[in-house]
Fold this protein.
Amino acid sequence: MDNRRKKLALIVLIVAAISIVAIKQLNDGQIKSLSEAIDAYHRGMYEESLSFVDEMIEIFPSDPELYYWKAKNQIEMGDVENGVLSLNKAILFQPSNAVYLNERALIYMDTEEYSKAYRDYSKAILVSPNVPELYSNLGNCASIMGEDSIAIDVLNKGLIVDSEFGLLYYHRGIAYYNLRMYNQSIEDFKQSYMLDSNLISSHLFMGMCFTRMGDTISGCEKFNLAYNMGMTDALEYLIMYNCKE
């Protein structure tokens, strides 16, 4: 599972309200509590965690949080189709939960069902309008769909919520790049890397902007920087533009 996807899902999970079932202890000592199932999940014991959750679903068949964790385990085990079905049940029982909507949207992104992802991200923002990750996700989705102007508008709204969230600048930089607004794109990639040093691909994109503007020297500097920081995708650009150290 992609680390960024895990990180975003975890951050939204913390921000959103957790159902009370997450701390509920069942009366039957033979049945594990949800907290134990979650612990097993975080230790990578997905089959065991799923077994705990399924036992609890038999007792609490209408509890959305159980279906959410069932989906999380199914997805980690590679059963994406049933993971979506479990999330559908969670959302059916609690349609205004940004965590569930965001999780399903992430799956739709992976399966390239972008219109469905866009719908779920939009709903999640209506529920939790103060979570910058959701605007970042929605803006990225819009860009992938070719709606870069819409993406910029969404990302601008996200920056009102949190002006120091690096991914908002990163995705807006991509949208500006797609619209051939290279100067604006470069500024956003500079800001994104300054706020989040993990976004080393910002240097690659800056290099692409510079070369598109005819500044091969600056472009090569950025390609070399990205490559030396471990981004192997930069190699093809180093070769393409005959860059030297």
Remarks:
- The two ends are 35 Å apart (CA to CA).
- Confidence is low (pLDDT under 50) at residues 9-31.
- The CA atoms of residues 190 and 202 lie 7 Å apart.
- Residues 46-59 form the longest helix (14 residues).
